[in-house]
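Complex record, two chains
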Amino acid sequence: MSPTHRAILAVWRIEQPRLITSLARMLRDVPLAEDLSQESLIAALEHWPRDGVPEKPGAWLMATAKRRALDHLRRGIMLARKHTQVALELEQQEQAMPDFDSALDDDIGDELLRLIFTACHPLLSREARAALALRMICGLTTAEIARAFLLSESAIAQRIVRAKRTLSDSGLGYETPRGAELSARLSSVLEVVYLIFNEGYTAARGDDWMRPQLCAEALRMGRALAAIAPGEPEVHGLVSLMELNASRQAARTDAAGDPVLMADQNRALWDQLQIRRGLQALTRAQELGGGDGFYGLQAAIIACHARAATAEATDWARIASLYAHLAALAPSPVIALNRAVAVGMAHGPQAGLVLVDSLMEEPALKAYHLLPSVRGDLLFKLGRHAEARAAFECAAALTGNRREQEFLRRRAAACSNI
Amino acid sequence: MRVMYLVKSNHPGPPTPELGEAMGKLADREIKAGRMLENGGLMPLSTGAQVRIEDGKLSLIDGPFVEAKEVVGGFAIFELRDKDEAIAMATEFMQLHKDLMPGWYGTCEIRFFATPPHTR
């Protein structure tokens, strides 16, 4: 990609939320607005390399996109009722070419909220919501989304086209939930943001850089949500959870790219600005009554780590108690396993082992390598080295991640050397 | 990537009300877009002070100050995708100055935060 193309894409990404929200308001159709905002990008890629980047690129893109919208309406694709009203408005807007200052005038908070809720509509699958959100809210190209999710471009393109058609066909392409409905629909949005974050978080270094970039995109969406829906405690809870997890990014792998356990991480590498933001968001969530929420509780757990100057200073008793709350709120074998780890740290390996052993018959954890891995660690601490070794070997056989496999084999080998 | 913008100028006086308002709206848009983390304007250097080391000697300068070519008047911290986005954002910001405060001159410096070497 040439420097000019990169510069054009950058300008477009910055302007895109405003383009979509303005067009959506005129067309009463978010997916269609997204199509037309893409067309303005294509027009820019065609004109700017030849004519130079305009002095007010945002206004140029907006004017172009609005012209496309008008063309679209003239072709009579919209419903007649909407057509007359909207076309009239458009004609008027076309008379006065939008300039940058007036473009900055609208408060886009409400429209952005609509955009986010449309892209993350519960009618769509989680995967479709994630692809649509990255495309419509973050301005990622289909190719970038495909790279990020390790899928083919055509698979992502299809997913997006189908999702947009579903929304338009069902008349859900333009609506903003409010009040109680907003809170109810929020979980469908937060779930997608967190899914995107975790896709990026579990990416290994050396993977395509688009994968870890997903963390940044999810954080951006979370921060945006916190700014436009500041009264929602779980939004702040999720932002806190993401900020605090992302703050450890630089410490999570060593120079060779191998994972470093939290207890062994160099805490000087933790991002203090991000930790501060994460703790502030947690406080906000708790003030709004979200301390017992699904994300608020998880954030509170991570905050215990973030606040500890050393691994030894970690408040494991508090973590164990928070996990008990979380397990009651959202019963899941994985949360139960995490709770067992915390109990093992707070009240000794024997207490943790009792909980782990109660999970051994859990079908959902049958192929989950962290179960024997945690068990091995507890057995090792209890001095039951032969059993620990068997557990680590079992865990190594279950994981598909090469680096993790090597790590578990090393732990198994260490059991025989004692 | 995290970026700090340093706006430098020695043009006297505060921004015009029009520029102030436009910058406020831009800031609001960028917070709602989830890109801007922090921002702030700084009082003139004459109200501050400098603690300096020169030739191995530590000294306090509490004014008057030697006229610098450009001093930092404001800053912002953003989280952006890449250098292209950082430049596009700064260009938009400076265009506002050009349009709404004729005669103003200055520099918007784009500086990326340092990260541990193994994560680059």
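Note: Chain B has a mean pLDDT of 92.
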